[in-house]
Amino acid sequence: MHAGKPAAESTPADPGKQFGKPAGGLRARLYAVIFESDTRAGRLFDLVLIAVILMSVAAVVLDSVEAVSANHGDALNVFEWMFTLLFTVEYMARLYCVRQPLRYATSFFGIIDLLSILPTYLAILLVPGAHVLADVRILRLLRIFRILKLTSYVAEYGRLNRALLASRRKIMIFLSVVMMLVLLLGTVMYVVEGPANGFTSIPTAVYWAITAVTTVGFGDIVPKTDLGRSISAIIMLLGWGILAVPTGIISSELSAQHSVERWARRRCDACGSEGHEPQARYCKDCGQRLTAGEAGNRQ
């Protein structure tokens, strides 16, 4: 994996088109640093922000350890405010440097940016009395959403996201078939084993069927009859085959995404046009013959 925002050819949602890139001035320079990574300043901004995100998440994790929190709680609180202020400045800068700030604020990463700073501010608005201490702690734990900010700075996350979106219908159909299967198997086990052996209801039996199909097997409910054990063995063997299906679907889409990106990188030396198909011999815009080097991009 490499740090930095994905190149334009591998990102279907270009921030400049989605949120509006300023024409010039301070906002345009700030946009180039924050949303683009083809400059030294942009790459440095990405790397620094990744480091800050990781440190802030580490602080949240350490704060949940009672011994560490008791001994270093004040220091962690100071670090937390430092991180919150940095992320607040970053969030405001992102809204300032785009032409459509509301669209960014309501986008996935805009919401993640807001979630990364909102809990700290909400915590100080609540009077920490005995009855709200638990709520404040939950708000502080919501800071862990900052880890999701990393997904906008590693190109492979975007590729995986596009593969999941492209295969969502297949995955939903697969999950619906699995749910029908565990419902039927759970009902069968409820009839075979019955309440006397722990299968007190169909939902309980379905819960057991899910743990069996996924080969988890917590052991809190186990079949006692020979017929029930035989069915269980078949279900667990079936589970191995079921787990392979979504892996194949997603792997196929990842391969397709990689092929599309290779096509997008095919560039004509004469006019600079990109996006030529692998079998193309001539540029689709100027008609110039593609060189062997350009054809090599298809491999």
Describe, in short, the structure shown:
This protein is mainly alpha-helical and 299 residues long. The chain is built from twelve helices and no strands.
Structure, explained:
The protein has 12 helices and no strands. By secondary structure, it is an all-alpha fold. The chain has 3 domains: about 10-155, Four Helix Bundle (Hemerythrin (Met), subunit A); about 170-250, Helix Hairpins, CATH 1.10.287; about 265-299, no CATH class.
Sketch the topology as an H/E string, one letter per element. HHHHHHHHHHHH
Biggest sheet details: none
Tell me the name of the CATH homologous superfamily of the largest domain.
Answer: Voltage-gated potassium channels. Chain C
Q: Helices and strands: which structural class?
A: mainly alpha
Question: End-to-end span in angstroms?
Answer: 21 Å
Total strand segments: 0
Top-tier CATH class of the largest domain: Mainly Alpha
Number of helices: 12
Tally of distinct domains: 3
Beta content comes to: under 5%
In helices, the fraction of residues equals 55-70%
- CATH fold-type name of the largest domain: Four Helix Bundle (Hemerythrin (Met), subunit A)
Summarize model confidence as the mean pLDDT: 77
Measured on Cα atoms, how large is the radius of gyration? Answer: 26 Å
What coarse outline follows from CA principal-axis ratios? flat
| Contiguous uncertain segments of 5+ residues | 1-12, 129-137, 293-299
